[in-house]
Amino acid sequence: STGFSLDVSNAMSSECRAEFFHLSPVYWNESELARWLECRGLPPCIARAFEDHLVNGLLAVDLRAEDLHLMGIHNELHRRRVMLELRHLYGPEG
């Protein structure tokens, strides 16, 4: 199993779905993860923070809310939203 939750695709546009279903998210580089976050509706500044801090798919599996704060994502609701999206992306075994 890739660990990629198919439920994630439901809210994505067909363009985003086509772009991200080719590879398990743990193999995404920081740019692919950033694009996925934007496709999920998160602000571009959050996607940039992932790129700026070189957070790729492998690192994002173990990300904590405290890490997001260290990355400059200070709004608690934004951090909660990112964590929720990542849980949906990686599923319970992620």
Report on this model:
This protein has 94 residues and is mostly helical. Helices cover 54% and strands 0% of the residues. Helix 2 packs antiparallel against helix 3. 23% of the residues are buried.
Per-chain topology:
Layout: H1 14-20, H2 30-39, H3 44-52, H4 57-60, H5 65-70, H6 76-90
Q: What's this, in brief?
A:
With 94 residues, the protein is mainly α. 54% of the residues lie in helices and 0% in strands. The model is unreliable at 1-10 (pLDDT under 50).
Strand content: under 5%
Which class best fits the helix and strand makeup? mainly alpha
Report the total helices: 6
Oligomer type: single chain
Radius of gyration: 12 Å
Helix content: 40-55%
What letter string, H or E per element, gives the SSE order?
A: HHHHHH
The dominant shape is globular
Main sheet summary:
none
Distance N to C terminus: 11 Å
Number of strands: 0
Chain-averaged pLDDT: 85
In the predicted model, the low-confidence regions spanning at least 5 consecutive residues are: 1-10
Label this structure with key terms.
94 residues, mainly alpha, 6 helices, 54% helix, globular, disordered N terminus
